[in-house]
Amino acid sequence: MEREELARCLRGWRDRLTPASVGLPAGARRRAPGLRRAEVALLAGLSVDYLARLEQGRAGNPSPSVVESLARALRLSDDENAYLFRLAGHADPRAGGISRHIPPGVRRMLDRMTDTPVLVLDAAWQVVAANPLLIALLGELSAGPARDQNLLWRHFTGVPSRVVATAGQDAAFESAATADLRAAAGRHPDDPLLRGLIADLRRASPRFESLWQERAVSRHASSRKTILHPQVGPLTLDCDVLTVEGSDLRAVLYTAVPGSSDDDALALLRTIGTQFSGSAS
């Protein structure tokens, strides 16, 4: 019964979305309402075959990370998210944990800020959303395994990045980010995804483990980053962090000094669009 209900919900939630509502082009004429299965699979970082089996009631219970990816891709409300987790046989991590739900106002901001790269992160540095210009700037960050959608996991395990930094800048970022993650752990000690991330980072990265043992606690502030883009070259941008009232979501806006060469490069990136987005490497 739960598997059949899960399948019906996934199909129904997919059918109510439009390509425009999730930042995708409409493409060719559609024979049915809503998103195509391949589009949801792309947004959730899943294979089309696995999503098909879920929608047909032929797959076993999906993992919490898969459920979270589906909830994000399908733009579920908090109540729908809780229902989806229950159908999949898991406790809802939003109950007493980090809320990864994007309020409608933040979603509208992402949709309308077409001239500024915007990245939305949760308290665990997990990518929750990114607008097309951010993807063009940094590459696709919200596809693939859930761990690869986490900025701290990517950094501490050496996943290729377009961000370039000196050793000193890297060290400063690592210290600040680790202290920020400890602050998040203090606010959400029972969040399973956060606890799993910290445990995995401590095992995978001696540098993170060393910083974690320092027990520094603070919130990460705004910064400047240099991005080496394969088509427009290097850009040094201000990264201003805006917090979303009533949640742990953070919107990071990447802007350049008006009239600078970085501003010209960002304008060129707006012109060429996402055709060169590719991976983050």
TrEMBL record:
UniProt-listed InterPro entries: Cro/C1-type_HTH, Lambda_DNA-bd_dom_sf, MLTR_LBD
Pfam (any one): MLTR_LBD
Residue ranges of every copy of the HTH cro/C1-type domain listed in the record: 28-81
One Gene Ontology molecular-function label: DNA binding
Membrane-spanning intervals of the chain: none
Protein name per UniProt: Transcriptional regulator
Source lineage: Bacteria, Bacillati, Actinomycetota, Actinomycetes, Kitasatosporales
